[in-house]
């Protein structure tokens, strides 16, 4: 009798243990969210073999080494950390869901601090009402419909974007202490061109061209601080226009309105050449008039010798386009 009880108890323990393991396995393949504080790297690959890598460093997110915009990084991390299962798809939809994942699924791999793999799953297609997205844990057979609580639509778009749409709209940001030199050259107004250089704990402002008379007055340090604070805040673009059809013609044949060069304390140089938008229209016969420069509203900006081509507004650019005389005003 005792032996029978032992056998029954053992069988019950074995059965309940197996059931518990099954339940835990089911929970694991339904749990796609990762604590945002644990995420340090994300690698995602589309079916065409294109792989992109997102990394976090000091609270700032980068995609393939380029700084992401705050909005895009927030939405991306939210898609990883706030995603929740809404339902198990009906059996009748199973085959189509799996075929779609096989055709357009995005493989997402989430890594932690020590490069350990935290999650690996596929982001698939959407249901007919487009409310939610089908996900499949890597190695599993059962897909699930997921979404972010309170969100209408699909999370798939948070993984698929044009390269420039991910990026920070700042052409640069420089803490004041990191700036060693700023030069601003106006090819059409040479006497307004200047060179601002760090000298110990202060700054010196001199003409860019040797033939421009040097001011005898002292530099207004408060104005210099105000000017450099603009560099700390950053110079922002309205849009990336790397594919502009006239890009090569603009850079090759047009004279820039201004050339900005920023040198940091390690000697790295950031360069920006600004071309008025209305003069590009002139190239196409769409704007005329001798005073067209007076109506500049936007510039095309060639950044770092062609690494990026951007569009910005005069209201943003003018914070960096001072004249030599400005720094000596009382």
Strands, helices and their partners?
Layout: H1 2-30, E1 41-45, E2 51-57, E3 60-63, E4 66-67, H2 70-81, E5 84-87, H3 94-104, E6 106-111, E7 117-123, E8 133-137, E9 144-147, E10 170-172, E11 179-185, E12 194-199, E13 202-207, H4 221-233, E14 235-236, E15 239-240, H5 247-253, E16 258-264, E17 269-276, H6 277-283, E18 298-303, E19 308-313, H7 314-317
Antiparallel strand pairs: 1-2, 1-6, 2-3, 3-4, 5-9, 6-7, 7-8, 8-9, 10-14, 11-12, 11-16, 12-13, 15-19, 16-17, 17-18, 18-19
Short précis:
The chain is of the alpha+beta class. The protein is built from 7 helices and 19 strands. It has helices at residues 2-30, 70-81, 94-104, 221-233, 247-253, 277-283, 314-317; strands spanning 41-45, 51-57, 60-63, 66-67, 84-87, 106-111, 117-123, 133-137, 144-147, 170-172, 179-185, 194-199, 202-207, 235-236, 239-240, 258-264, 269-276, 298-303, 308-313.
- Continuous helix count: 7
Q: What is the chains' assembly state?
A: single chain
Quantity of strands, as a count: 19
Can you list the strand order of the major beta sheet? 4-3-2-1-6-7-8-9-5
**Major beta-sheet overview:** 9 strands, antiparallel
Total domains: 2
Helices and strands, in order, run as HEEEEHEHEEEEEEEEHEEHEEHEEH
How far the N terminus sits from the C terminus, by CA atoms, comes to: 105 Å
What is the helix fraction of residues, given as a range? 25-40%
Shape: elongated
Structural class: alpha+beta
Output mean pLDDT: 88
Strand content: 25-35%
Can you tell me the residue ranges where pLDDT is under 50 for at least 5 consecutive residues?
A: 285-293
Using only C-alpha atoms, the radius of gyration works out to: 29 Å
């Amino acid at each position: 009798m005792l032996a029978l009880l032992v056998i029954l108890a053992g069988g019950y323990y074995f059965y309940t243990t197996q059931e518990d393991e099954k339940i835990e396995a089911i929970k694991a393949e339904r749990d796609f969210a990762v604590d945002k504080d644990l995420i340090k790297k994300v690698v995602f690959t589309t079916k065409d073999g294109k792989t992109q890598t997102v990394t976090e460093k000091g609270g700032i997110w980068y995609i393939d080494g380029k700084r992401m915009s705050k909005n895009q990084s927030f939405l991306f991390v939210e898609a990883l950390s706030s995603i929740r299962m809404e339902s198990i798809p009906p059996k009748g939809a199973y085959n189509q869901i799996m075929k779609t994942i096989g055709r357009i699924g995005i493989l997402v791999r989430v890594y932690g601090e020590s490069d350990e793999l935290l999650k690996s799953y596929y982001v698939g297609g959407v249901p007919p009402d487009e409310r939610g997205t089908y996900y499949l844990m890597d190695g599993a057979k059962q897909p699930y419909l997921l979404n972010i609580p309170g969100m209408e639509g699909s999370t798939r778009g948070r993984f698929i974007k044009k390269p420039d749409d991910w990026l920070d709209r700042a052409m640069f940001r420089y803490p004041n202490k990191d700036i060693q030199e700023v030069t601003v050259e106006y090819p059409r107004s040479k006497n307004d061109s200047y060179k601002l250089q760090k000298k110990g704990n202060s700054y010196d402002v001199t003409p860019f061209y040797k033939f421009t008379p040097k001011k005898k007055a002292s530099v207004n340090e408060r104005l210099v601080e105000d000017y450099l604070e603009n560099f700390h805040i950053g110079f922002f673009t309205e849009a990336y226009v790397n594919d502009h059809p006239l890009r090569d013609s603009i850079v090759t044949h047009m004279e820039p309105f201004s050339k900005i060069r920023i040198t940091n304390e390690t000697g790295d140089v950031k360069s920006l050449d600004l071309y008025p938008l209305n003069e590009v229209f002139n190239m196409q016969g769409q704007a005329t008039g001798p005073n067209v420069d007076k109506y500049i509203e936007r510039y095309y900006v060639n950044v770092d010798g062609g690494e990026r081509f951007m569009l910005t507004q005069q209201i943003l650019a003018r914070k960096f386009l001072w004249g030599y005389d400005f720094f000596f005003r009382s």
